[in-house]
């Protein structure tokens, strides 16, 4: 088990493993996203109250879920990087931040575009919306901090600290709709037990969720590869690649 | 596609706007690291030749 773990963490081994997996992850992401989006836009019936505006959930829910999951992953990578000084974890940390920030931006904008016709306003400073905006600033903070340092390892340590401190915001986003009286509805789909929407609506949403997460995996793996290439540019295994 | 589909029961700007923003960011997420990799490999190759 530990030898397997060590092998996985070795840059050339991880690079090659990612290279082998990436085409499959990319194809699966594109296929599931096409299924989810076409299913959501064309085949799902309009909602009886929201009509066609409800279709925004096919981009909003997956990106919002990814924004939280990726932040958690980034904080875990940060903890591993700080405790075990693991290079691969540092690379995962800095690779996740831009992708997570992108997902957060989409979640925020699509939420606003849904809020305008449904709530009558693009934005309110309530708990869910505000904490999701804080999440975006945390991602941007990690990106900015990483670029402020000359030395990649010192940068990663600083980013790891910020990522870990910021993780307290994740449960705040997740449970804000239950803890406070938010304008945002509580979870109807991502909860245990039977979902409260019809299968025609739910199945494309699950496809869009899986596709969005796979797209994030694709983007992060590619970014980890880039980070490894740059850090190890003077080593033998990179020279062999060229 | 019929007109109703594009019309989205009056919410066209919101629905297509949302999917448009998502499509832009998703394409960026998928393509930006690939372009960066080409740049990286070129620059590593360049500096290897200098040595």
TrEMBL record, chain A:
Its main location: membrane. Residues 27-184 form the Cytochrome c assembly protein domain. GO terms for cellular component: plasma membrane. The chain crosses the membrane at residues 21-44, 64-84, 91-114, 120-142, 154-173, 201-221. GO terms for molecular function: heme binding; heme transmembrane transporter activity. Keywords: Cell inner membrane, Cell membrane, Cytochrome c-type biogenesis, Membrane, Transmembrane, Transmembrane helix, Transport. It is found in: Cell inner membrane; Membrane. Belongs to the CcmC/CycZ/HelC family. This is Heme exporter protein C. It comes from Sinimarinibacterium flocculans.
From TrEMBL, chain B:
Keywords: Cell inner membrane, Cell membrane, Cytochrome c-type biogenesis, Membrane, Transmembrane, Transmembrane helix, Transport. Required for the export of heme to the periplasm for the biogenesis of c-type cytochromes. The chain crosses the membrane at residues 12-31. It comes from the Bacteria. GO terms for cellular component: plasma membrane. It is found in: Cell inner membrane. Belongs to the CcmD/CycX/HelD family. GO terms for biological process: cytochrome complex assembly; heme transport. Its main location: membrane. It is a single-pass membrane protein. Pfam families: CcmD. This is Heme exporter protein D.
């Amino acid at each position: 088990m530990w030898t397997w773990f060590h092998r996985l963490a070795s840059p050339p081994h991880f690079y090659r493993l990612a290279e082998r997996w990436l085409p499959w992850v990319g194809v699966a992401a594109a296929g599931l996203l096409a299924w989810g989006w076409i299913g959501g836009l064309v085949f799902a019936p309009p909602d009886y109250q929201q009509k066609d505006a409800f279709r925004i959930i096919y981009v909003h829910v997956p990106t919002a879920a990814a924004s939280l999951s990726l932040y958690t992953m980034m904080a875990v990578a940060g903890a591993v990087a700080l405790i075990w000084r693991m290079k691969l974890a540092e690379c995962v940390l800095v690779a996740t931040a831009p992708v997570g920030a992108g997902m957060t931006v989409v979640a925020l904008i699509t939420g606003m575009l849904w809020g305008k016709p449904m709530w009558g306003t693009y934005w309110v400073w309530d708990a869910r919306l505000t904490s999701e905006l804080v999440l975006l600033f945390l991602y941007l903070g990690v990106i900015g901090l990483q670029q402020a340092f000359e030395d990649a390892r010192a940068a990663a340590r600083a980013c790891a600290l910020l990522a870990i401190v910021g993780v307290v915001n994740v449960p705040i986003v997740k449970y804000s709709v239950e803890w406070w009286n938010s304008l945002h509805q509580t979870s109807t789909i991502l909860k245990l037990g039977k979902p409260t929407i019809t299968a025609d609506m739910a199945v494309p949403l699950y496809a869009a969720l899986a596709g969005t997460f796979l797209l994030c995996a694709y983007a992060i793996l590619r970014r980890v590869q880039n980070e490894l290439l740059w850090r190890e540019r003077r080593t033998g295994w990179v020279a062999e690649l060229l | 596609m019929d007109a109703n589909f594009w019309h989205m029961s009056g919410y066209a700007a919101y629905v297509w706007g949302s999917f448009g923003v998502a499509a832009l960011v998703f394409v960026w997420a998928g393509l930006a690291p690939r372009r960066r990799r080409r740049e990286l490999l070129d620059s590593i190759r360049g500096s290897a030749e200098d040595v």
